[in-house]
Design brief:
Helix content: 40-55%
Radius of gyration: 29 Å
Number of domains: 5
Shape: globular
CATH topology of the largest domain: Rossmann fold
Distance between the termini: 39 Å
Bound molecules: ligand LTDHYY67
Strand content: 5-15%
Largest sheet: 8 strands, mixed
Strand order of the largest sheet: 8-7-6-9-10-11-12-13
Number of helices: 24
Structural class: alpha/beta
């Protein structure tokens, strides 16, 4: 946990040894306290060097211990002893120094940071020995340092506070940080530290802290996929991918090309027409150049090839199809790829919800077919849903997951069903939002409630950004709207359930969102981003309500949140029951990284557990009674089962999920 060595007969070298990140667990704190005591009491020791094993100084407190009561010695007295000691202590920092690890470095009298500090420990020790006589320690104690306090501190912090409130809506920690900075600048050290401890205690005991800790581990759990066959992340070897091809240079295709090229993979990009190819090429080159400039590296343009011919793909390791969301077209592409590519080439689809196994079925290698569902813009968004078809091999899944990681994505393995996890859950969420419009709410009221909850964007603002025509096309293909559907017979119902045609009416007016300058909001120009409420939408809603004799009512923010988010979580429970997601953590990670769900709320499933499953069940029953023609509001059997089992913690739900067959 901490190794103590006497080096050169006078320097104590204390090495933190708690892999993988040398977190300050209770055992480490105990060993550190003992080692420091030994060093300070040993007359032979004239100086101390603290470092971390395996190229990492310290990743801070052991977050796993936060779930229980504090055990072992507290950190602050240890830090105080180092700071006040009569022997110089040097932090030799390599890799990370985070949280409590950073505090540990701060109280040391000297800090040396290098990307390979272990090579330097002996030199550091020598330098420390020499400087000992020259420099008295009083000037090296952090408590003796004065913090500069600008005369306009209040105004400065006010500006920062406003910025933080805008960027991290509803999040407590950044505001507490500003208060701690104020305390440091205006109070003596001991009082400032006391204030900081109080702020820390408030945060530490908050629901937000629990949510953020949950997110940290959920993100890491998501990479550890497992199949009922026994194949899993640590026993399935991914293939090495050196070359890839992308079919389709629309918005998604371009982002995927950039994501691959910037990690050094050669990419062949294919389009069907010369003009589309040229436009796509220019866009990709521009994106890569801007990206490289931002990262201070040179753009990897030599890795790219642009072509109109699928024949050029015969030798690539992997293909990602990113053509229009049209099953017939995708099947044609997969049939062609089957003929052209060498038998070992992996064939992936970027479909956002179509049947991956149906595509596998038209190829000569269904075991090498897998979904790689990127989120737009693909070179920015961190989420990748890896859609495992029933015939995808474990090697194929491992390769897609590992390629996602290589591109810096958070990859989550999901099963194959319409919409997979993310988009399947989006439907009930968006349905509730449009039903609320019918009942009397406005897009801006619903968006504000969701943004106050913490979403980066409300549902209507997000739809305008994504483009309203995509969903419209899908609804037409599923027979929910279009020339063959009589909107009056029956009105506001399709396939035996409630249906809101307002989104179709918006699209019929050519309002497709930001790209057309009009959508649920109006924008200064096509492509504009500054959303303003549009009186025409207000008129449309009023006319619609009067046509169907709907008496608008005042709808509270609480109802908006409950109906949208409990319907969302309810679908999540069904997804768990169906074996489309293996764990609630996977669902939460998908919503955190793909749909802007606020991290300090932990994701839809964690949020439901924090609200209390009993309460979620009671509200869903209430809303389902009021809207019996909305099946998504009917509480799922798993939710009922969990409540009947006493609402266990989210980490243990898996034990209660008995799926007949997993789709993973
Ligand atoms: C006694 C209390 C006194 C003082 C309290 C002070 C406040 C704090 O210190 S709060 C903690 C602050 N520290 C952090 O927030 C760091 C969190 N960790 C990270 O950001 C990263 O893990 C990393 C250190 C930058 C390393 O990143 P990477 O190389 O990508 O590895 P990972 O996959 O993220 O992590 C590997 C492995 O380590 C586990 N882990 C990492 N940090 C901690 C930690 N602080 N506590 C416990 N466990 C940690 C992580 O879960 C991974 O575990 P696996 O089992 O391999 O999944």
């Amino acid at each position: 946990m901490a190794r103590y060595e006497l080096v050169k007969r006078s320097v104590a070298l204390i090495t933190l040894t708690n892999p993988p990140v040398n977190a300050l667990s209770s055992a480490v704190r105990h060993a550190m306290a003992k080692s420091m005591e030994q060093a300070l009491n040993d007359p032979k020791v004239t100086a101390v060097v603290i470092c971390g094993e395996n190229g990492r100084f310290c990743g801070g407190a052991d977050i796993r211990e936060f779930a229980g009561p504090l055990r072992g010695p507290p950190l602050v007295p240890l830090l105080d002893a180092i700071e006040a000691g009569e022997k110089p202590v040097v932090a030799a920092i390599e890799g990370v120094a985070l949280g409590g690890g950073f505090e540990l470095a701060l109280v040391c009298h000297y800090c040396i940071a290098h990307f390979k500090v272990n090579h330097f420990v002996l030199k550091i020790i020598k330098a420390v020995g020499m400087s000992r006589a020259a420099k008295p320690l009083s000037s090296r104690r952090v408590s003796m340092l004065t913090t500069p306090c600008p005369p306009d501190l209040d105004a400065l912090l006010e500006v920062v506070t406003m910025e933080v409130k805008k960027k991290a809506r509803g999040v407590m920690a950044p505001l507490a940080c500003i208060q701690a900075v104020r305390a440091a600048a205006t109070m003596p050290y001991s009082k400032g530290i006391k204030r900081e401890s109080e702020l820390m205690a408030t945060l530490f005991n908050s629901g937000q802290a629990r949510a953020l800790q949950y997110c940290f581990f959920a993100q890491r759990t998501a990479g550890k996929w497992t199949l009922p066959s026994g194949a899993q992340w640590n026993n399935s070897k991914p293939r090495e991918i050196r070359s890839a091809a992308i079919i389709g240079l629309g918005t998604m295709g371009r982002g995927i090309v950039v994501s691959l090229a910037r990690v050094g993979i050669s990419v062949i990009a294919v389009e069907s027409e010369k003009k589309l190819l040229e436009t796509g090429k220019q866009m990709v080159i521009g994106m890569l150049e801007r990206d490289a400039k931002r990262r201070g590296v040179s753009a990897s343009l030599n890795l790219l090839k642009f072509t109109l011919s699928l024949q050029d793909l015969k030798d690539v390791d992997l293909v990602i199809e990113a053509v229009f969301e049209d099953m017939a077209l995708k099947k044609r592409v997969f049939q062609e790829l089957s003929k052209v590519c060498r038998p070992a080439t992996l064939l992936c689809t970027n479909t956002s919800g179509l049947d991956v196994d149906a595509l596998a079925g038209v190829t000569d290698r269904p075991h090498l077919v897998v979904g790689m569902h990127f989120f737009s813009p693909a070179h920015v968004m961190k989420l990748l849903e890896v859609v495992c078809g029933p015939r995808s091999s474990s090697e194929t899944i491992a390769t897609a997951m590992s390629l996602g990681k290589r591109m810096g994505k958070v990859s989550v393995a999901v099963g194959n069903c319409p919409g997979f996890v993310g988009n399947r859950m989006l439907k009930p969420y968006m349905d509730q939002a449009t039903f609320l419009l019918e009942e009397g709410a406005t897009p801006e009221q619903i968006d504000k409630a969701l943004e106050d909850f913490g979403f980066a964007m409300g549902v209507f603002r997000m739809s305008d950004l994504a483009g309203l025509d995509v969903g419209w096309r899908i609804r037409k293909e599923s027979g929910l709207t279009g020339p063959d559907v009589d909107p009056k017979n029956p009105p506001r119902r399709r396939h035996g359930r409630r249906y809101c045609p307002i989104p179709d009416m918006v699209c019929e007016q050519g309002r497709f969102g930001q790209k057309t300058g009009r959508g649920w909001y109006m924008y200064d120009k096509p492509g504009g981003t500054n959303a303003k409420p549009d009186p025409l939408i207000q008129n449309l809603l009023e006319m619609y309500r009067s046509r169907y004799a709907i008496q608008p009512r005042n709808i509270s923010d609480q109802e908006i949140i409950e109906r949208c988010l409990f319907a969302l979580a309810n679908e999540g429970f069904r997804i768990l029951e169906d074996g489309i997601a293996a764990r609630p953590e996977d669902i939460d990670v998908i919503y955190l990284f793909g749909y802007g769900f606020p991290r300090h709320r932990g994701g839809p499933m964690f949020y439901a557990s924090m609200v209390g499953l009993e309460r979620v069940l009671e509200r869903l029953e209430h809303y389902h009674q009021a809207h019996p023609d909305v099946p998504h509001l009917e509480p799922s059997p798993l939710l009922k089962k969990l409540v009947a089992c006493g609402s266990p913690s989210v980490q243990t739900w898996r034990e209660h999920i008995k799926t007949m067959h997993s789709h993973l």
